[in-house]
Amino acid sequence: METTTAVLERAVAAKSAVMRADDALKNKALCLAADFLIRDTEKILQANATDVEKARSTISEVMLDRLTLTAERIAAMADAVRAVAQLPDPVGRTIEKMTRPDGLEISKVSVPFGVIGIIFESRPNVTSDAAALTLKSGNVCVLRGGKESICSNMAIAAAFRDALQTVGLPENAVNLIEDTSRESANELMTAVGKVDLLIPRGGAGLIRACVENAKVPCIQTGTGICHVYVESTADLTRAVDIIENAKASRPSVCNAAEVCLVDRKIADAFLPMLYDRLVTERKNAGKPSVELRLDEAAQKIIAGTPAGENDFDTEFLDYILAVKTVDGVEEAVRHIAAHSTGHSESILTKDPAAADYFTASVDSAAVYVNASTRFTDGGEFGLGCEIGISTQKMHARGPMGLREMTTYKYIVRGNGQIR
Fold first, then answer.
1. Buried-most residue among 212, 228, 275, 383 (CB within 10 A)?
2. pLDDT tens-digit map of 356-405
3. E strand or H helix at 355
């Protein structure tokens, strides 16, 4: 097994060739990588089966679902790679251009970062998404996944490296660190002069470790305590549909709803509908029911678990939903400000004034009106796929696609000017 230092040195050596690659060559590599993912489906599934078997007794069922690949999921990964190839090249865009009074022509042009390190956990599809986005944006990636998905990640990365070599690009444009120890993560975080940008993609613990320990530029992503607020004028039948989707369609992902805020005026009517849909009907249909963790007011209306001290500050990533009653949109906004991680929040309402107040006041990366938070996703936003969901406010916020994988430089053209 190669050392992390050796992987980083290979990545740095590949940087120049990848940054200079034209769009046609990058697209050729991406389309071939998608083909090779399909070609290697059986190999990837066998590797994934090894990962799943090892992890089965150590992680929850919903997290096991995040880890598990199927032929259909691999095909979706390949489709996402092809979708990235179809997008415009983000490199070389002229963002701004001006001519100064002295004749200098100043252009602000998008350029790759260089070497991007990505630390992630148990979702092997991140390997293909990250490889596709970094390659298309002219970057080299150094991927460090979790131990649960190491065999899957190696098989997926091998398909990309094979494609790169076939088209004449450096195979080290895509690198996977096989050492899944804490030391390898720390080495990525502190690789000053080698890693130009670090992106952690995972739970609160991983994000916190990177923020506290990284000595290279780092973008915070992921943690999602996402709220859905049912305002007093909402269509309650539609609200139940949206909340079931936001919570239960895939509870292990960061854009799943964790908190439902209900206007006190409609709580008596709405909460029994919510209970019937998320608990009774799902149980009768043989689906996992949702555990409702209720504040004191909600406990007087429906059955559930009394909400604990930390339940409104927890990313459950499971079939659990914290429920709180509030007195109007202003209290809903105050609660979100106090408890949100800045990921995604939604208001369900027929009142344009309430919607405008909510969208203007809630300071999260994605703010919805009458829609599920599950749409906070690179593919759903038309970005092909994503490297992560940024919850900070620097150059990237929300789903990070190709443009967020570039920085810029100024190109200044003159004809002898001196200052």
1. 228
2. 999 999 999 999 999 999 999 887 888 777 788 888 777 788 888 899 99
3. helix 352-361
